[in-house]
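Appendix C: a fully annotated inverse folding record. The material below is reproduced so that readers can follow the format used throughout the book. The structure is listed first as tokens, followed by the designed sequence.
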């Protein structure tokens, strides 16, 4: 097991990464202020891992209730959030009753928002079971639900007390979900870690084959990168925005195609290629750089061609992005592979070359 730390003063917390950690409930005990917890999961994960976690907690004298939600991005909404509130109230959960998110990014996001708002805030623990959640969404305290007009538009910054990452849960992850997670792994190499990007070029086949050593290294390196950024910019007033590489385009793709039809990581992959091509149009990347980026995503088995929904529709959806400031869209672009920046001076002409008839 390897333990990292997100340094946020008195709200700092550990990220435990290793195998068979679901059985080690003693790691969770320091984050539990009372001997009761509410485990939020979904219909896919529950048959695989819920009983293992509950039994491990029971051996440590922890009572738990289970809240089992429908699976899928299309359920990350008010109606599903209310199912969590209903269960917490019906089971008389108190301000010291921790909410434990057992699942992927959707479960982590919606459980975290429930934790941030139930009784004005209760303890929160992340146990991510997908690669995407393990390397990205479980770390950093972003919680949210979707609105029909935009993704993650209603939420809060609310840090967990603990992230417990059991790499063994990836053994049951569908191949499509595994590839979607790799998109977020590649992101860290592109925005701030050139040596990691080179490592990924050399080891992408091992990741796809679920080599435990390669997965462990990729998860740890990704979490190190994210923890460093979050420690410096928790509320995304500066550097943390760079973690959204490909997301402005990607969220537009998810919305346009219908939540759940494109996985988040797939949309981010296509969105990252659009961001790379925009960087090329702006004279920041070379054509060889773009080809190198496209090649890695292709080798990962991820989409490199965004859906053709039209320039106007892209612009309409991207204007709802959370990074819009004073009415101007802000895009994460690449100065080079391994170095990113945020630009708000992107012309319609430049976007048209990437998204429109000139693309």
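Designed amino acids, in order:
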């Amino acid at each position: 097991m390897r333990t990292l730390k997100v340094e946020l003063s008195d709200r700092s917390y550990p990220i435990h990464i290793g195998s068979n950690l679901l059985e080690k409930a003693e790691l969770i005990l320091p984050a539990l202020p009372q001997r009761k917890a509410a485990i939020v999961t979904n219909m896919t994960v529950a048959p695989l891992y819920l009983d293992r976690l509950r039994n491990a907690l029971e051996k440590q004298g922890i009572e738990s209730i289970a809240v089992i939600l429908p699976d899928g991005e299309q359920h990350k909404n008010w109606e599903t959030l209310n199912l969590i509130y209903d269960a917490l109230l019906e089971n008389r959960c108190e301000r010291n009753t921790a909410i434990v998110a057992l699942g992927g990014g959707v479960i982590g996001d919606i459980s975290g928002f429930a934790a941030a708002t139930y009784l004005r805030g209760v303890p929160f623990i992340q146990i991510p079971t997908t690669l995407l959640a393990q390397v990205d969404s479980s770390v950093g305290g972003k919680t949210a639900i979707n609105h029909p007009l935009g993704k993650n538009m209603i939420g809060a910054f609310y840090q967990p007390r603990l992230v417990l990452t059991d790499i063994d849960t990836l053994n049951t992850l569908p191949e499509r979900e595994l590839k979607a997670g790799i998109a977020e792994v590649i992101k860290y190499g592109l925005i701030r870690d050139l040596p990691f990007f080179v490592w990924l070029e050399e080891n992408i086949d091992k990741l796809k084959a679920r080599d435990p050593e390669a997965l462990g290294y990729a998860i740890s390196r990704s979490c190190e990168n994210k923890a460093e950024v979050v420690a410096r910019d928790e509320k995304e007033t500066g550097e943390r925005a760079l973690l959204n590489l490909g997301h402005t385009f990607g969220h537009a793709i998810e919305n346009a195609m219908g939540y759940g039809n494109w996985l988040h990581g797939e949309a981010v992959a296509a969105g990252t290629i659009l961001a790379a091509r925009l960087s090329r149009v702006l004279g920041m990347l070379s054509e060889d750089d773009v080809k190198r980026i496209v090649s890695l995503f292709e080798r990962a088995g991820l989409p490199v061609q965004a859906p053709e929904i039209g320039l106007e529709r892209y612009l309409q959806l991207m204007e709802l992005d959370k990074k819009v400031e004073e009415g101007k869209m802000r895009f994460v672009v690449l100065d080079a592979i391994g170095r990113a920046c945020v630009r708000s001076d992107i012309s319609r002409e430049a976007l048209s070359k990437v998204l429109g008839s000139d693309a």
